[in-house]
Structures are given as C-alpha cells and as structure tokens.
Amino acid sequence: MVVIPLPLLSHLRVPASPRPHVFLDNDISTLTCYQWVLGVMINEIEQITQKFSVLDYVPVGFCVLREDFVVLFWNNCLEEWTQIPKTEVVGKNLSTYFTHINQPKYQIRLRQVLANGLPAIFSAQLHQSLIPSTLPNGQQRIQQTTVTAIPNAQGEGFYALIAIQDVTEVTNRIQAYRTELKQRTQIETELKRSNAELEQFAYVASHDLQEPLRMVTSFTKLLGQKYANQLDEQADQIINFAVDGATRMQALINDLLSYSRLNTQKKSFQPTDCQAVLEKALYNLQLLIVENNAKLRQSPLPTVIGDETQLVQLFQNLISNAIKYRSQQTPAIDLGAERQKDKWLFWIRDNGIGINPEQSERIFLIFQRLHTRNQYSGTGIGLAICKKIVENHGGQIWVKSAPGEGSTFYFTLPYLVDRHT
Ligand SMILES: Nc1ncnc2c1ncn2[C@@H]1O[C@H](COP(=O)(O)OP(=O)(O)O)[C@@H](O)[C@H]1O
Ligand SMILES: [Mg+2]
C-alpha cells in the first residue's frame, strides 16, 4: 500500500468544482487519493508549462511555485544556471534543492505572494536570490529576483511567478562607477580646497608685499635723484637697475593682486549692457587709441548677466592687446557678438602681428608672454585675467590666429541666465 506523506495531503487543494467524490467518500483508498493528488499536479504542471513555455528562451531565470513550494515550471535559463534539469525539479519542493529558502527572510516574502497576492523583490545582492549566487561552475553571480503572484489553476489562490535576472555586470558597472565618482569627488574637493588656499595666499602675499615694495621703489628713486651725477657712472647704472627692477616688481604685484581679487571680491551678477561696458573700456583706453590712431568697427552688443567692472576689464584687456600687438598697419579692430542657442559668442578681431597657433593656449596662463620686455611692455597677466573673468561668468575664451595675419579672440557668455556666484 502506498502511504501519502501527511504534509503533501495537507497542502492539497481540492478544486471547487467538480469536487471529486473520492474525497467525500470515507471509503476512499489511499492509492486513489495519491493518484488524484498526482493527477492534479500533473494537470497543473501541464497547464503552466503550456502557458509559460515562451519563457523558456529568454535570458532570465523563470520558475513557477505552487503554494506548497512545489515547482511547476523551470525554464531553460534556470537549467543552465543551476545545472538542475527541469525533468528533475518540476513536481518537487524547491526547498529540497535549496534549503536556504526555509530561512524566515525568504519564507515571509514568498508567503506574502502566495497567500496575499502581493509582489515581492529580493534585492540585487550576493546571497539574496532564491537560487544560490554561486553557480555550480564556481562563478559568483548577483541576481535580482522578482516574485509576482499569478492566479492558480483553481482560481482560488496564487502561484508565485519567480523571475531571476542576472545583474552581475550591471551591478559591477554601477559599483565601479560609484567608486570612480567618489574618488573624483574627493579629488575635486581637494583641488578646490588647495586652489582656494593658493588664491588666498596669492592675495595675501601680493597685498602685503605692496607696502614694502612701494618703500623700496620710492627710496631707490630718491637715491637716484639725490646722488645723480655725484657717484660714478657705474653707480648710476646700478641705481637705475634697482629702480627698474622694483618698478617692475610693483607692476607684477599689482597685476597679481587684481588677478586674485577676481575671486576674493565677487559681486552678485546683474543684467549688464555690453555696449555701455565697451564705452567705458574705450574711455579708459582713449590715450592708447589716439596715440595709435586705432580704428574700431563694431556691431551691436547684447545685455548679459554679469559683473560690470569685470566685463570692462575683459574688453579693455583685449582691446589694449589688439592695439599693443599692432603690425605696421594702422590698428583696425572689428568687434561684435552673435547669438548661439543658449549663449552669446563675442569676437574681437585685429590686424596685428598675430600669434603662432602653437602658443594659443599658453598665452592665457598667468605671466606667460611671447615677447621680451624690450619688444613690448607688459606682465603677461592680461589674458589670464580675461580667462578668469569669462570662466567666472560661465563662458569660454580662445584665440584663432596666425603670425602676420592678425588675431581673433572669441569668448562666450551665457544668454541671460541669472548666475549668482
Ligand atoms: N592681439 C594680440 N595679438 C598678438 N599677440 C597677442 C595679442 N594678445 C596677446 N598676445 C600675446 O599674448 C601674450 C600674453 O598677453 P597678455 O596676457 O595680455 O600679457 P601682456 O600683454 O602683458 O604681455 C602677449 O605677450 C602677446 O605675446
Ligand atoms: Mg596684455
């Protein structure tokens, strides 16, 4: 005689209709009952296999569990991952293969699906899936398991449709990306901190050096005036060198100070009419313009959001360079702006000596010059200031030029975006 294990009988759900008379009959033989149980299960397996056979060919593990954790469907993907053929597992209790699902964390969630029809998710972590994360071939995988309730064959309860997705690559990529992001943020924070420190240092140093330098300059000048022609020629020359050196140092310190002030003394940005900005810059440069008989042609300039003082400085530096680095021809400057989507593109074109394209990035660095002091005066900070101003305003600056063909400086400023820095 075949004895039906009690747990199997207790899990057996009797279809509502037609209710098999065998169960209403106390004389039912255990064998008939067993056959009936098997029959129900085979029937369920057949129905489910037919319904879900399409899921056999997707790269996601699919399985259907009955309320008593008996496997009704096991797709090809799961066969491959677990190396357990469907012919073996279907019809058996899943916990016979994977005992870990008897743990409360799995049981609670599976019951929630099977009893209440609620969905459940097992997060994408190692050792969180319904099937082991270490595959028989030793590979460690990360699986995202989603369990959805589907109505059972009797229409009285639920099966659990389990979808197991291999998310190892995606998770690893996300992890690598997070690590990289964290490192970058750390580097960026460190860079910002050291930049701020450096700027503060440049500001303090240039500010505090001004006073002693003024004394050195004025006393050497005084020395030169007082003892002019009283000492020998060599002494006069030495004093001249000292005055010259101190004056140059003063100019450098002043420029450095105005460069670092761009960061330490930021004002809030306002709508600023670039036409008025240009006029102020031209007013400051009137002597240079007249001396060189420079001609300026311009197209209308827009209103932007910015710091007026800084923008005057920007125009002034670019126009003064356009005149200072003039060729034999009379300086002719062409200046304008055009709208480009979310920004304005400004240009200042000159007919001066031009720049070797290889130097076109270096000239924007602080104290970088392409000429000696004897050829052209200057400290090499003008374009570094321009770059900082443009970047403070959220734009970019660059130059297109060739020796002997004049230069065009371009810079962009955002199109009326209110930026408070
Ligand atoms: N319009 C221009 N035409 C030719 N060369 C230029 C022009 N503007 C700048 N330069 C070159 O770029 C260098 C850096 O310019 P800048 O930073 O203004 O410093 P400075 O004018 O004090 O030398 C200059 O020394 C010069 O060689
Ligand atoms: Mg200059």
Describe this structure in words.
The protein has 421 residues and is of the alpha+beta class. Helices cover 47% and strands 18% of the residues. It contains 13 helices and 12 strands. The protein has helices spanning 6-11, 21-24, 30-52, 76-82, 86-89, 94-97, 104-116, 168-226, 233-264, 274-284, 286-292, 308-324, 382-392; strands at 61-65, 71-74, 120-125, 143-151, 158-166, 270-273, 295-298, 303-306, 332-340, 343-349, 397-401, 407-414. A 5-stranded antiparallel beta sheet has the order 2-1-5-4-3. It has a 5-stranded mixed beta sheet with strand order 7-9-10-12-11. Strands 6-8 form a two-stranded antiparallel ribbon. A hairpin with a 6-residue loop joins β4 and β5. α8 runs antiparallel to α9 and α9 (233-264) packs parallel to α13 (382-392). The longest helix has 59 residues, at 168-226. It is elongated and about 135 Å long. Mean pLDDT is 86; it is low at 1-25. Adenosine-5'-diphosphate binds at residues 317, 321-322, 325, 350, 352-355, 363, 369-371, 378-384, 407. Magnesium ion (MG) binds at residues 317, 321, 378, 382.
